[in-house]
Amino acid sequence: MRIKLSVPIRSGASAHAGPVHLFPPGHRKSFRWHRAFTLLEIMVAMAIFSMVSLAIYSSWNAIINASRVGLQAAADAQRRRNAVNAIQDALFGVQMSTANLQHHYFLADTTDPEAALLSFVSLLPESYPGNGLFPGTPMRRVTFTLDVDRNGSRNLILYQTPVLASLDEMEDPIPIKLAENVSVFGAEFYDESLDEWLAGWENTNALPRQVRFALVFENPAQKSGQYRSSSQSSAPDLETRVVTIPSSAIPIQIQRPGIGALSGNGQPGPGQGQDPNQNPGDDQATPGAAGTGGQSTFRGSDARPQPGPRGR
User: Fold this and answer.
1) Domain membership flag for residue 120
2) Mean per-residue pLDDT for 120-149?
3) Share of the chain above pLDDT 70, in %
């Protein structure tokens, strides 16, 4: 906006002089209207910002959930491998002494084919679970069985006791939870004399040549109904192993050389003609031996460990 100011022409001034400007050209000021945001524009901007924030949060939440599910799946798979390896390592180190069958018997309770029980003495490696609880005692009796927790889920529990343990230690073994949500724990045993697999092993005073066991792991999401799409598998995981036992029972003649030999007067020495599965001086066969009809000496008639504290 320009302001023109006309002044009278002085005497002597040029008659052709133009109009006089109030502000010099270099110091002109412009006057403009300053507009603000309307309420509608503010609401549209907030709506756009909310949608962008929601998209960012959804992506972040999906990443967090996927990471948590992946870590949980990896932890479950690792724990299952550890459970399978624990049974394998124990079977690889099975020990049996026929001179001390009271402590070295091999017990396999398969009355329930989906909840077997294995109990035997084994020479365990240093990295075996719970080894720190028994310092300097690598040879221990291990028992694998299924235990039902307060939520109704079956867990694979490992009980360990020293071979020469006190009565208190035998009545209250230390449990270790190897795996959770185990629906089936089954075992079969290979008999060389029959050349076939047996569903049970009744001879507690002898070792099978091979043991085949199976573990079925339920998916926790399957029980909670979290699988809603067909692309997500809800089938349980099955793990099977066939373990060849490298050891055999130590004959009583090796640990007690005098048994089976003739004495100086020509009479049979101590234990000659005696069942090698029977301890010298015993009038009856060892309880639990095949064909004797006796009961196992492990934990009474039910052949299962007494309830102890929950597995860790």
Assistant:
1) yes
2) 90
3) 63
pLDDT tens-digit map of 85-96: 999 999 999 998
Alpha-carbon torsion, ordered 259, 262, 268, 273, to 10 deg:
50
DSSP string for residues in 263-307:
-TTSSB-TTTTS-TTS-TT-SSPPTT-TTT-PPPSSSSTT-SPPP
Does 90 fall in a domain?
yes
Asked if residue 7 is part of any domain, the answer here is no
What pTM, to 2 d.p., does this model score? 0.62
**Residues spanned by the domain of 154:** 71-220+235-255
Q: In this structure, what are the phi and psi dihedrals at residue 221, rounded to the nearest 5 degrees?
A: -65, -25
Q: pLDDT of 163-198, one tens digit each?
A: 876 555 566 777 899 998 899 999 999 998 889 999
Written in H, E and C, the secondary structure of 9-39 is CCCCCCCCCCCEECCCHHHCCCCCCCCCCCH
Angstrom distance (rounded) from CA 241 to CA 91: 11
Bridge partners, residue 141, by sequence: 121, 161
In a domain, 281, yes or no: no
Residue 8 has pLDDT above 70, yes or no: no
If you search the block for the tokens 């009545």, which residue do you land on? Answer: 171
E-strand ranges in the chain read: 4-5, 20-21, 94-95, 107-109, 117-123, 139-148, 154-162, 174-179, 182-191, 196-198, 210-217, 237-244
* Total of domains in the chain: 1
CA–CA separation, 201 and 289 (whole Å)? 11
Q: Check if the beta carbon of residue 189 is closer than 8 Å to that of residue 290.
A: no
Rounded to 10 degrees, the C-alpha dihedral 218/158/188/99 comes to: 180
